[in-house]
Amino acid sequence: WTSCKEWSSAQHSLFQAANFFFAAGFLIPNRFKQSVLLFRSLITLGYIFLTGWAGVDICAPDLLLWNAILVILNLTHTCLLTWRFLPPTLSIELTELYLKMFKPLRVSKKHFKELVREARMINLEHGDIYAVEDASPADERLSILLKGRLRVTCDDTHLHFINVHQFVDSPEWEANHEQSDDLFQVTVTAEEDSVYLCWSRMKLERFLRHRPLLKIVLDCIIGKDITYKLYSLNEHLSG
Questions:
Q1: Does residue 128 sit in the same domain as residue 172?
Q2: How confident is the model over 95-128, as pLDDT tens digits?
Q3: Residues 20 and 78 in one domain
Q4: Are residues 105 and 199 in the same domain?
Q5: Which of 89, 131, 191, 223 measures 20 to 30 Å from 38, CA to CA?
Q6: Cα(68)–Cα(48) distance, rounded to whole angstroms?
Q7: What Gene Ontology molecular-function terms does this entry list (predicted)?
Q8: 72 vs 38, 40, 51, 58, 227, CA distance in Å?
Q9: Are 148 and 195 a contacting pair, CB within 8 Å?
Q10: Residue 194 pLDDT > 60, yes or no?
Q11: pTM of the prediction?
Q12: Are residues 173 and 120 in the same domain?
């Protein structure tokens, strides 16, 4: 080990740029979620410049090889993080549902997508029946209408319509927290071609046990839906 007797001139600008990106990466605070992605991106850029410096300026095959390997590893990690942080893609119907009912309550797209992943989208053609009074079990599912219109009747008497972004069976869901033998007291029929999002009770309750805040939001939306249905029914009967 000897001290430097003579200092060489400054290294190539590629080397300087690489160290600039390294320094910037290590200075990023970790107080926000995407900090790890930004860190990896800057480190990847640093190794890209180091690879160029090793191959163009000093022509060292070992440095070129090692830096190229580190570029590949960090670039792969950066791509995986980018994929993880991309906003979830949703269909037009689900996007409209999210924007109208869940985003105002500050539910993130990520949590909304986790919620709808537990459900199925089901089509009803005009005249198809969703539930039959005194025949269909009332404690098995929860559905929300995404497209179309449903008619609710009891003893062939029209009660009200279910429109887009309204729950189909919110009263039944709320009345049957435990498994029971209760049946629908109304018949629900498709007034036109319709699409609804359907959760099975067992899967949804299991999912919500691990998402208490999402459960509170869903309970509020269901409660509001029931209130609207009761108000509409009272208006219809009094009219």
A1: yes
A2: 999 999 999 999 988 899 889 999 999 999 999 9
A3: yes
A4: yes
A5: 89
A6: 7
A7: cAMP binding
A8: 17, 12, 11, 21, 57
A9: yes
A10: yes
A11: 0.65
A12: yes
